[in-house]
Amino acid sequence: MTKQLMSGNEAVARGAWEAGVAFASAYPGTPSTEILENVGTYKEIVAEWAPNEKVAMEAAIGASMGGVRSMAAMKHVGLNVAADPIFTFAYMGVSGGMVFVTADDPGMHSSQNEQDNRNYAPFIKIPMLEPSDSQEAKDMFRDAFDLSERFDTPVMFRMTTRVCHSKSLVEPGERYPFAAIPYVKNRAKFDDVPIAAKRNRLKMPERDRRLLALSNDCKYNRAEYSGSRKVGIVTSGVSYQYAKEVFGDAVSYLKLGLTNPLPIDLIREFRARVETMYVIEELDPYMENQIKAAGIDCIGKEKIPAIDELNPNIIRKALLGEEARGVQGDPKLVVPRPPALCAGCPHRGFFYEAAKRKDTVIVGDIGCYALSGNEPLNAKDLANCMGSAFSVGHGLSKAFALSGQDKTVVACMGDSTFFHTGINALEEVIYNDSHLICCVLDNRITGMTGHQENPGTGYTLKGEPATIMDVGTIVRALGLERVRTVNPLRLDEMKKALDWAYTEVREGPVVLITRWPCVLKRLSAEDRREFRMTPAQCTIDRKKCIGCKKCLSTGCPALSFDTCERKAAIDPMQCVGCTVCAQVCPQQAIVKGAKKA
Q1: Contacts of 232 (CB under 8 A, 6+ apart)
Q2: CA 261, CA 128: separation in Å to the nearest integer?
Q3: Which end of the chain is more exposed for a tag (fewer CB within 10 A), N or C?
Q4: How far apart are CA 232 and CA 479, in angstroms?
Q5: All residues at 6 or more sequence positions from 246 whose CB lies less than 8 Å from its CB, including other chains
Q6: In the beta sheet, which residues pair with residue 254?
Q7: Peptide bond before 261: cis, by omega within 30 degrees of 0?
Q8: For the chain, how many helices (H) and strands (E)?
Q9: Tell me: the pLDDT tens digits for 32-88?
């Protein structure tokens, strides 16, 4: 077949198809999102968005038990959520091969931490593969299923942001005709009650020994002696590409693709053939610590940073003492542009009104609304992890009551986050009678990761109609009646709803649901019927505008200030006519204008 240009995520999807995978599940999260989106394009694979990563992992485990090849995909923090089932499944082993992707985010480009998930592999006691480019991503992922079945184990596939999103040429192959393995009841293997778990646990050391032998004789672990043997570099993943860009063929490399178990014999042999050996790896000294523990001399984090994303320039400076020469621009010409909620974002009205409340602590979550803490809204006070807003808010509220601090806690999360782990957190709030205002910002889609469907949107990953799970109905089913739904773009309604919530919260927990579609969403027929959105822009009457800048306090990127005329201006290319700015203008100088062409 003709080679194709693919991102790492696209290549993984292709590898899954070639491996004969029949079932795939994931929760979207950058940098892993596009894996399932691309898997979903293959008609032979049942591909699904799950409410969260734990559910995705469990569904893939069930499919493996059912005798087909299966996979799950998630970003690095998602593995924290999915850890419970995979630790146990590692004891059981597989029926059909099962591989899961963890996509790490060194540098925290879109994450709340940069944990190095390589540490999970020895903790779970399973093999781990690390591709360095798209061709390897496709080939390794395909081969990972053979590895899974051969060693009766789930396999961890670790990627990073640059491998996920960088594109390179890939030679595609044919699909492997994997025949499903008939299910046979086997409680000793798959029912991990303590007596079975004890037996399964005893099998793992032998599996580890077999895997270690494989790692020392694996096609993805290879030495390259094309250059000088004065310097040898042990590396894996995208760090290999960085090292090659700096040193080219001037040094020797030990390029590792199967990194758990680490091929210590191969590393020892490589060390004996080079004068000085460096370990170049991103984030933690995962390989370095094991190499030094085996008594093998090497240089690693003494020179290579253990924090933030690596790149060729960092390696060049650390090992060669050279600064890369780049194009130098005038910093005065670069205008700082902090991230902001989109023009017309339905979250803007909620945060604009909530930020006015005195003695209030606003707890955020993981999603577009994380931007609400920025200027000029200055709304959000704090956040932790996905689905945590209600739980953290509950603890804050209890602490304030215990310490006599007269503060109201407002906790907010999006609809996808509510379905992810927010429902469990709300159970905690209701069960323990928390005096907390819980807000579900329902923009009808999973917004920040690129508009993936969720249980509240009415469609599956493959675009098929699905049962819509209504947030308000679910909240009432949990036994709470202090619930109100509001259009957040109507500021008077939003203010009244918050007034109501601040009064009702004295009696116990309150849920506010702000319901309006994401401005970038391609509307479904249901959305069009319900919201009747009119595509018209706002315009400014220059005679009425007094240049007070009140409209700019909404933080809308479509608004700017003309310093020559001392008046506000609206960019017609960005404005969608949400009218939040019109509602805050004291002069009524902003009106909704003609329909867009």
Answers
A1: 251, 252, 253, 254, 270, 271, 273, 274, 275, 276, 277, 278
A2: 7
A3: C
A4: 64
A5: 312, 315, 316, 319, 320
A6: 223, 234
A7: yes
A8: 21, 22
A9: 999 999 999 999 999 999 999 999 999 999 999 999 999 999 999 999 999 999 999
